[in-house]
Hints:
heterodimer, A: disordered C terminus
Amino acid sequence: MIDLRHHPKLRQLARNLHIPDTGDCLRDLRDHAIATVQQMLKDWHVQTIDDLRLLIADKLSVKIELLHANEDVDRISERYGHVIGHFRRILRAEFLKNDTEGLLIDNPKPGKGGRDYLVIADARGSRKVRVYFTVWHELAHLLCIRGNNLCWQFSSHAN
Amino acid sequence: MTQEPTNSDVKGMGSRIAELREERGWTQKALAKHAGLSVTFLSEVENGRRNISSGKLLRIADALDTTMDYLARGAHAEPRPRAIIKFPPELSDAAEKQGWSYGQTRALLQARELILERRSPGGAAVPKTFTIEDWINLYGRMFE
């Protein structure tokens, strides 16, 4: 059984956030994520959990897309994929060939004032009941990253 | 949500909503439907004749794939810099051994760079560094 409290990846995440990595990193990262959400909710009165998720997605510059049927892979590809020619192939590989449940990706078509990230979550069949939490799982990645180091963290960008 | 908007530039907000709506080729009716608002209300907002609650603004922003910050203040960050395309040695080696085309190899790199995190039941997170085997597996999922 892996002890997540002291897992090397969580300790690294903690260090990136300037959180001491000698204690219970799992608890400390969770507390950090909750505190970040609370800060974002300052001066807001959210009435539903859907509004809460929508608001946090807005603050994190994330667009949420849900897959309700296989055809939605093509719909999302057409909407965002004209810049990246193989976007449809990438999504098909993830959601039709693999068992991927959720993805956090760079928005391939950000546009003017557009959101930086795209969360694509599988809501087909039995996964529909979990999709709310799948989206939060992906949002949590961004909640555990220090503001200006989003690119650096993932090591997939220039800086 | 009950917070009132902090921005008094209602006209500016209305014009930004209209601009983004038109960029998407949507009518007011189409945007109103996506955001769950009445056409009359949306028209008045776009023309700067009506203020809007933050809750409704959030729904318009979501429908237009933008943020409330941008609609309310016109503020948006510059696009984050993307890396210059540079094939990692492991990918180049895999491409040479497997005889992949340039287009296929570039598509694999795009897939690698686009996906930041993945959730799957098998726990197949995105590796921070790809081995030759990782690239071959990715090729199998994308092209076979």
